[in-house]
Amino acid sequence: MTAVHCTTCPYCGVGCGVTIAQQNNGALTIGGDTAHPANQGRLCVKGSALGETLDLAGRLLQPQVDGQSATWERALGQVAQRFNHIIEQHGPQAVAFYASGQLLTEDYYVANKLMKGFIGAANIDTNSRLCMASAVVGYKRAFGGDAVPCCYEDIEQADLVILTGSNTAWAHPVVYQRLVKARQQRPQMRVVVIDPRETATCDIADVHLPLQPGTDAALFTGALRWLVEQDGLDSAFLQQHASGTEATLAAAAEWTPQRVAEFCGLPLRTVLTFFQLLTTSYNWVTLYSMGINQSASGADKCNAIINLHLAGGRIGRAGSGPFSITGQPNAMGGREVGGLANQLAAHMGFSAEETDRVQRFWQSPRIARQPGLNAVALFQAIAAGQVKAVWIMGTNPAVSLPDADAVRQALKQCPLVVVSDVMAMTDTAELAHIRLPTLAWGEKEGSVTNSERCISRQRAFLSPPGQARADWWILSQVAQRMGYGEAFGYQHPSEIFSEHAALSAFENNGTRAFDIGLLAGWDKQQWLGMTPVQWPVNEQHPAGCLRLFGDKRFFHADGKARLLPVTPRLPQNAVSQRYPLVLNTGRIRDQWHTMTRTGKAARLMRHLSEPFCEIHPQDAAELGIADSSVVRLSSPHGWMLARAQCSPGQRRGSVFVPMHWNGQFTGQGRVDSLIPPVVDADSGQPESKHAPVRVSPWPVSWQAEIFLRAEVAAPKGIYWSRVAQDGLTHYIMAGQQPVEDWQAWLQQHFTLAGLTLQTAQLAQRGLHLIGWRQGEVQLAFYARQHAPALDRPAILTAFKQAPASGPQRLALLAGRGAADQPAAGATVCSCFGVGENRIIAAIQSGCHSAKALGASLQCGTHCGSCLPELKKLIQQHASQRVA
C-alpha cells in the first residue's frame, strides 16, 4: 500500500506543493502537487532531489554541552540557566536570538514571544534580514503595511513583465516556467529583464537592460518622469487614493531619458524602448528580488518601483502590481510573527498602543518597547561584548553574513553560543557551546507562507531520528525552565498556530493588513488538514484573498497609498585603484543557501561543482586570468579562491561569485568574507551586490582530482572543493607548491595502504593512479599541471561496476570511459544527468530545438531549468553537421 503525503518544498519563497508517495518498504517518490496553487504540479531540480537529502549522514542527533553529549534535561537546563544568569548580570539587552526563514511559523512565533514578550528585549532577528527587509520597508512606507499586493496569476495575466534584480530562471525556477508557459499562450506579452549580467532569465527577454550595478532607482524614477510626459498618470487614482504625489513627481523631474541612460550606463535607445513599453502596455507586473533588496539604498529602490505602479494605476487589479518575491520558504511567515528585530508581532510595531496591545494579549510580565538589533548590528554587538549570549536557529551566519570572518571571530569570543540545527557540523555550529538537534524537513509539522501570501502546511512523513526535536518544543521547554511555564505550555503546533491567528485579529478591525482571525478557532484536526489559503482570512475574505487593494483602500490611517520622493544614488562603497572591480553575489541553479541540504545530493553538484568567479573575457585578459584557472579575490575584509569563468554576458568591471560554498565544501570559498558590513539605513539589509574587490591569478604548480571510497578530510594549504558523490569522496584540488613524489603525497594525505596500484606517469610531473582491493576500485587520482580533462560520469560508473577487467582499468586510469563511449561532458540537465557533449552531438545530428533535444535525450523535459542553456547550445552548434 502507498501512503501519500502533501507538504511544501523547503527551498525558495515560491512555496511549491510537494507530494510524497511512501511505500510499505519505506521507499519515497517525490512529486509536484498538482492541487497546490503555487506550482500546479511542477518542481525545480532542487525540489525533485529532496528525497536524496533525507539520509542521516552528518546529522546532529543528540544534544551537546561544551563538546560533550548530554541528555535533553541537562541541555535545556543549561540553556535556561546560562541565559538567566547573563540577564541577571547584564540585563535583557545582553542576549539575542538569530533565527531563519527555514523555521516554520509556529517555531518563529514561540521564539519571538519568548524574546520580546518575556525576556523583554527585541534582539531577535533573522537571516531574512539578508533577503527581503528592504521590500518590507518599501511596502510599509507605500501601503501602511507589509502587504504584497500580487499573486502568481498576475504574472501570467500581465501584458508587460519586468524582472529586475532577479535571475528568476535559476532562483525561482517554477515561477519562471509559469511565465514561459504564459508567454507561449499569450504572444503579445512582453518581458523586460533589468540586470547587469546576462543571465538565464534573459532567454525570454524582449529587452535586456544591463545597467551599471546599483542604478536601478534612477531607471524607475526616470520611468516615472516619462509617464508624466506621456500623459500616462492615473490622475483620478492619485487624487483620490494617494498622497505625496506632488513631491515625488518634482523629485523625478530632472531624470530625463538622457540622464537616466548616462547614470545607468545604458544606450539611450534601450532606455526609451523600455519606457515606451510602459505606456503601450495596459497591465504590468514588476517582479523584484535580491538585486533590488540587497543594497544600501534597497528600500528606496523598492519605493521607486512602487511609485511607478501607483502613479500609473497598475495595482489592485489582475495582471498588475509591484511583486517582491522572497528567497526563503517562510520569510513571509517570519514577517507575520515579528521575526525581524524592528517588528513586534502580527505586523505590529513598537508604538505605545501596539506594545500595550501585544502585552495584554500575551499576558506577559514585560514587553520590548523599542526595536532590537538587526542582523549585522547584532553580530557587531557580540564582537563589542555588548551581547553576551546568542541562540542561532537553523542558519549559518559564519558563512552568510557580510564580513563573515568578523562574524566568526565574534562568535569565538562570545561567552555563550547556542546553536539549534539539523547538522552536527557547520561553520557556525563548530563555534557553539551548546548544540541542540532539531527536526529536518520531512520530520517536522508546521506552516509556512510563500511570496504570494499563501499559507501552506509542511507535514511530517518520517519519524524523528535520534533525539532530534521540533524547534517550537525546544524553545517552549527552555522558556518553562526560565520561569515562563504558564505561557509556553504548548502540546502541539496547532495550538501555537491558533494563538498566532488570534493575535492577528486582536483589536485589528481592518487596521492591519495581516489578519487570519477566522483560522484562530481551528482545532487540531482542522489544522492538520489545512489546504493552501492566501491571507487575509477574515470576515471580509473568508476564503482568502488573491490580490490586495482592489478596493483602493490602503493601511495608512487616511486609507491612502503614499508615493515617496526618491533620490537615486550610486553605491557608497566605490571601486578604487586597489579594488577596481564590483563584486556581485547571488544564487546558482542547483544549490541552496550554504549547502547544508543541497550539498548532500550528488546530482545537484554536477552542474556547477566548485565556487567560481564569472568575469568578462576582456577584464580577464587584462588581468592575466585564463578561463578555468584558479583566481584569488580580495577586499579590505577578506579573501577567497575560486575558478575563473569567462563570460561575455558579464558586464565589464564587474564579477559574480555564488553565495553557497562553506567550510565543509571548500577550503577558502566563502564569498561573504569579502562583503563589507554596509547596510541600508532604513531596512538594515546588507549591500551584497556591490563590493569593491581585486581579482588576480593564483598561480598553481598542479591541479588534481581524487575519487575514493573512504571519508577523508582535504589536505591543508591547498585549494580544494568537495563534490558530493554517492558513496564516494571526491575532491577537486590545486596547489602552489610542487609535489616531487605523488605516491608519498597520497600516502600522507589519503593513505594507499593495502591497495594494489597502477600508475601512468605523465610529462611535467603529472600522474594518474588507480588503486583497487580484491578487484574493486578504491581510489582514482589524476594530477596534471593544468586541470585534468576527465569524464567524471565514466569514472563514477567504474566505481559502481563489478571488479574491473584489464581494459576497464586502463580506461579508468586514463580518466575516461570505454573506447566506444564518448565523454558526456559538463552536466547541463541535472534532472536526467545529460552532459554537454551528448547535447552537442544531438544538435549536430539534427536536433535543432529544445523540444527535439527533449525527445531525444529527455533534457529540459522535467523542471525546465536547463532550457536557456539548451537554447544557447543550439545557437552555437546548430550550423555544424556531423560528417
Biggest sheet record: 7 strands, mixed
Note the total helix count.
Answer: 29
The helical percent reads: 25-40%
Could you tell me the strand content as a percent range? 15-25%
Assign an overall shape.
globular
Nearest-angstrom radius of gyration? 27 Å
Q: Strand order, biggest sheet?
A: 5-4-16-15-14-6-7
End-to-end separation in angstroms reads 53 Å
Structure summary, number of beta strands: 34
Structural class: alpha/beta
Instruction: Enumerate the spans where pLDDT stays under 50 for 5 or more consecutive residues.
Output: none
Overall pLDDT confidence: 95
What is the structure about, briefly put?
Helices cover 31% and strands 19% of the residues.
